Amino acid sequence: MRWEEFASHAPELAALAQQRFDRMGLALLGTLRKDGSPRISPCEPYITEGELLLGMMPDSMKALDLLRDPRIVVHSTVSDREGTEGDVKLYGRAVNLTDDAAWRDRYGDATEARIGWRPTGRFHLFTVDIASAGFALFGPERYGLAWSPERGLRRLPIAEDPEVTQA
Q1: Looking at residue 43, what DSSP letter applies?
Q2: Which pLDDT value is given to residue 139?
Q3: Are the CB atoms for 26 and 114 separated by under 8 Å?
């Protein structure tokens, strides 16, 4: 489902994702290589007009992966090994918008507004069709969120790790 629809079904989780994407300006993408092995690549996510947009350099390996197999995970970057800032994962499929001039303009506007640079020439553009999502927060306030269309949004406790608390 589109970002806008996901946000209406799981507003708390969507807000956490947007906060992390906006704060860091970066996410990690999980794609599948031609041989089926996983690939992790950085990307700048933009939430624009109800869509989660991902732009990529022409013929980048992550873009070629998605053109071949659209399965994707978008993971907010983590800069705290304790996990106290929390991280979001969105699972789904990439939808190719490369040939859609209107979406390319919208993406260009969003990029220019955020970083003062506008992509020109050839580039790949995808939106994410979200199938499920999760969030995990560690530290003093340990909890997780899980969402899928079938089960809705669920809040999950994250147990203390006895090995960590004994150290």
Answers
A1: E
A2: 81
A3: no
Looking at the structure of the chain, the number of domains it has is 1
And the tokens for 88?
Answer: 């979001």
**What angle (nearest 5°) sits at the alpha carbon of residue 133, between those of residues 15 and 44?**
65
| CB contact at 8 A, 115 and 91 | no
What pLDDT does residue 6 have?
98
Extract the residue ranges of the chain whose pLDDT is less than 70.
161-167
Q: Measured between alpha carbons, how far is 144 from 88 in angstroms, rounded to an integer?
A: 10
Range of 12's domain?
Answer: 3-166
Q: Give me the pLDDT at residue 163, please.
A: 57
Integer-rounded Cα radius of gyration of the chain: 17
CA atoms within 13 A on the CB side of 33: 6
pLDDT for the residue 167:
38
Q: For residues 99 and 111, what is the distance between their CA atoms, to the nearest angstrom?
A: 18
CATH number assigned to the domain comprising residue 15:
2.30.110.10
pTM for this entry? 0.93
